[in-house]
Amino acid sequence: MDFGSPRDIDQEVAMGAFKVIVGADKFMQHAFVLENHAVKLFTSAKFLRHMDIPCVAAADVRNNKFVVFTEKDKAPIVKYALKTPFEELVQNALDKNVISKKMAVSLLGDERISNFPIKEFVQTCAEYIGEIAQKKVEWKTTRQRIEGETEWLEEIR
Amino acid sequence: MMKNEDKVRQLTQKLEEQNDISLEEADQIYSLFSGNARGTTLNPHSHAFNDELSNALQDWYNAVAQKIEQGYRGNFVFTIVFSENEHFNKLSKKAQQAIKEHGNFEDRCDILVVNEKTYSALPYKHLFTQGAGDSQSRPYFIMGSDRAGMLYYPIKVKDKTYTQAGF
Predict the structure, then answer these.
(1) Which residue from A minimizes the CA distance to B138?
(2) CA distances from B45 to A1, B38, B54, B86 (A)
(3) Given A79, B12, B59, B155, which is the most exposed site by the fewest CB atoms within 10 A?
(4) Distance, in angstroms, between B159 CA and closest chain A CA?
């Protein structure tokens, strides 16, 4: 999972996200001025933490490159999670009154937001992504199992 | 006993001819940048400053840069030091630049952070230190290095050899 960004990720933000992944999230207590990419980073980080996925976060700090390695069998769920559109997450948080409409617009417009309820937002997103990703993995497993069975073909005949 | 500058020159020649050096030789070069050298042999402001050694090291890193640009990888990468010391960085500047431009993430990774679950499975726990957190934090562990190639540096534990990347 590549956390690298076309723009430079602030080292402090990236290390903060690393700490979320590994469970040390005291920075969340502070009010941050955040931009869209930082919120996305924290959301992915919180998801990994929420699912308690074993991982190694690696950084090339001098070049602002950040990568997270996880176990092979956990890769599908992480991939599904990362594919969840950010717009969908923002809408879900808006529906649950975690953020205001003004904040949602700013977030999607990549504007800097002060006093953003980051802790509540990423927690809501992590739970949402977890549910969706779990359902997708279960659906895929069921589909593969059914496709592997030959009995239903006999029934059709 | 061979002088350090002569040994570095010998290794530069070996690198140019054989495209790599042994891991022990790479460690020998790295050890020249010890805390002691910071204040003496590699400190231009010190009476103990060894100009010959600095020149030999500069030539070494020029050769390292050339090999990286040519696409070679090997133990010689482990000699690249990213220091806060101005003189150390001046010596290895070309090699640092080469690894930045031609290297990949594995070459340049300098920090690893693992959670408790992963840490418990690590055979080389001694390389990690526990990160500072508050009472609400779960334990996490950090490993950092000022050397290039941290992810594929061989770590020997008892009779087995691991690499971070392999693990």
Answers:
(1) A23
(2) 46, 10, 13, 12
(3) A79
(4) 24
**CA dist., res. A18 & res. A116, Å (int):** 20
- Would you write out chain A's pLDDT as a tens digit for each of its 157 residues? 544 443 445 666 767 777 777 666 555 544 455 667 777 777 888 888 778 777 788 888 777 777 888 878 888 888 877 788 889 999 999 999 999 999 899 888 878 777 788 888 888 998 898 888 888 878 888 888 877 776 666 666 5
The full 3-state SS of chain A, as one line of letters, equals CECCCCCCCCHHHHHHHHHHHHCCCHHHHCCCCECHHHHHHHHHHHHHHHCCCCEEEEEEHHHCEEEEEECHHHHHHHHHHHHCCHHHHHHHHHHCCCCCHHHHHHHHCCCCECCCCHHHHHHHHHHHHHHHHHHHHHHHHHHHHHHHCCHHHHHHC
Cα–Cα distance, B64 to B94 (Å, whole number):
8
Single pTM value for the model: 0.74
Residue corresponding to tokens 């073909």: A153
Subunit contact A60:B139, Cβ cutoff 8 A: no
